[in-house]
Amino acid sequence: YFFADPVTVPQSVRHLFAEKVYDLPSVITIEPTADARPSSLPMIRNGYVTFGVFNRIDKISENVVPVWSKLLQALPGSLIVIKNGAMGDPYLRDGLIGRFTAHGVSQDRIRCIGATTRHEHLATFSDIDISLDPFPQNGGISTWESLQMGVPVIAKLGTSSSSRLAAAILKAIGLDDWVADDDDGYLAIAQKYASMAPQLDALRAKLPAMLADSDAGNVEIYTKRVEEGYRRFWRDYCASVSEPAERT
């Protein structure tokens, strides 16, 4: 069997799997973040939009940097905050910044933050308006953390399970409008919401409740679905085993 969801593994490709695909609300979830309280929208107090990328540096692919650079150029004054442990290494940090400057983005519009405590890590979301999901390798835990802290995420659908993960999470909690099919759609979503501060602020405030009300974000419901899956697998196995031959 293979745990999945309708977005991560669409019906149209399930015949390609050796395993039987069993749907969960989303293929991954995490426990609620203790004392997660979304802050007010940074864009309102700053006067510019701040994008966040809290994923591993190896997920920041050669495909995604040009798209993020184009976004920053389309929104004068916008910033991007990139946070992961690797940013504490000057060689890796400067190399990443250089990839953006090669696409015409000024160095002062890129802020890099290295390793911090867990509390500081989550608190950094208070400075982020919108999170940008990398592609083709999506974020999983980082997507959930951002949403729990009230920061919506923009994702692009790919053609592999790992490139559909963030979209599956977003769709599972009702943020279908934050999922793009291509680069242009990704940019359009970012530009649209960067110009809608009141709506973005309202979404920020209600995101924790949206998660709690969803089967994907409610860990009690999610756990029951996993348990139901294991029971089904066992029953299917038992039904498939032939009765033992009579002893003589």
What labels describe this entry?
8 strands; six-stranded parallel beta sheet; alpha/beta; 9 helices; 11% strand; single chain
If you had to describe this structure to a student in words, what would you say it looks like?
- The chain is α/β, with parallel strands linked by helices.
- Helices cover 40% and strands 11% of the residues.
- It contains 9 helices and 8 strands.
- The chain has helices at residues 42-46, 64-74, 90-101, 118-123, 141-148, 165-172, 183-194, 197-212, 219-240, and strands at 2-4, 21-23, 50-53, 79-83, 110-113, 130-132, 153-156, 179-180.
- A 6-stranded parallel β-sheet has the order 5-4-3-6-7-8, with helices on both faces.
- Strand 3, helix 2 and strand 4 (79-83) form a beta-alpha-beta unit.
- The mean pLDDT is 94.
> Secondary-structure element sequence?
EEHEHEHEHEHEHEHHH
Distance between the termini: 37 Å
- Rg, Å, rounded: 21 Å
- Side-by-side strand order of the widest sheet: 5-4-3-6-7-8
Q: How many beta-strand segments?
A: 8
Secondary structure tally, helices: 9
Overall spatial form: globular
Low-confidence stretches: none
Helix content: 40-55%
Q: Structural class given helices, strands, pairing?
A: alpha/beta
Query: Largest sheet at a glance?
Result: 6 strands, parallel
Assess the beta-strand content as a share of residues: 5-15%
pLDDT averaged residue by residue: 94
Topology (elements, then pairings):
Blueprint: E1 2-4, E2 21-23, H1 42-46, E3 50-53, H2 64-74, E4 79-83, H3 90-101, E5 110-113, H4 118-123, E6 130-132, H5 141-148, E7 153-156, H6 165-172, E8 179-180, H7 183-194, H8 197-212, H9 219-240
Parallel strand pairs: 1-2, 3-4, 3-6, 4-5, 6-7, 7-8
